[in-house]
């Protein structure tokens, strides 16, 4: 009987412990509990349960109780412990973005502007080191204003702060009292981005007819209708005509001067004894120049040098004929020269050259003594040979070309 009572008491204690276990696990962190029950008339048993959890703290608690009836006594004891530890993190310091916010301002110069004129809008931002500022894009001042150009510059002050100034060239397109809306300035400070707005900028835009258009609206300030006025314009027609006439006159004068110069040169080359030709080519001009040099040397005027002067004239004519008709005349006698010339030149030219060579050969080889007058006539005849052959040979070549065509 006593053993049965003891077993019943032990079972009751175990059931109480099992029932108390879920309550112990559900206790707040840092607490523990234990319960025990015992019954019996002769003996008692005890049990204890304890739980513990900690988050920076620990505690333990235990309790026990026994109850019995009969001739014996029962007892029970229970205890429980619990402990725990977890290091707590330090405090985090957060700085607000307003700590690095720049100081912004906007102003215009001038504040009274004519319609369509220009004024400058100044936007400034003063900021600490480590802060970046800029204008929000796209920058639009509204339909009444047009931004023509924008520049910026930075200025560093003695306290280490930087002032950035934007200068905007603006043109107004509306009349009246206007206001430029606050301009947004963006910035970044301590890894955070923010935005500020400047103050509004008042402006007064006036027209060219008066302040606010009152002059245009007041009939007393307007002029009456005027009669049509004749407008004078600059007419360049006569200036162009005068310039063209002057240019034409200049061309004519230049042509006459060139023609007269050629005539004077031809007259100088032929010595005035014969009519100067209209045109002398380079071959004829070279031969006439050499004859003129012989005349100026005075060899034909001096008896001792007259024969040498005749020889020089004959050499000039021979070289001229060789160049004119493209024949070799260096080693030919006068008769042989005339035979070669007859195959290339007209008969009139051959007859003219033959008569001149015969007269010169009498002085060179026949021993005839010529007077200064006869020598001068021989010089003029040599010039006539050159001029005649130049003119006639050109005409003959032209006729031959026409026949070929």
Task: Please provide a brief summary of the model.
By secondary structure, the protein is an alpha+beta fold. It has helices at residues 2-25, 214-217, 237-270, 282-297, 303-325, 334-342, 347-364, 372-404; strands at residues 103-109, 112-114, 119-127, 132-135, 145-156, 162-172, 176-180, 184-189, 192-197, 201-206.
What do these coordinates show?
There is one protein chain. This protein has 405 residues and is an alpha+beta fold. The chain has three domains: 1-83, no CATH class; 99-215, Immunoglobulin-like; 255-404, no CATH class. 40% of the residues lie in helices and 17% in strands. The chain has a four-stranded antiparallel β-sheet, with no helix packed on it. The protein has a three-stranded mixed β-sheet with strand order 2-10-7, with no helix packed on it. It has a three-stranded antiparallel β-sheet with strand order 4-8-9, with no helix packed on it. Mean pLDDT is 74; it is low at 19-87 and 393-405.
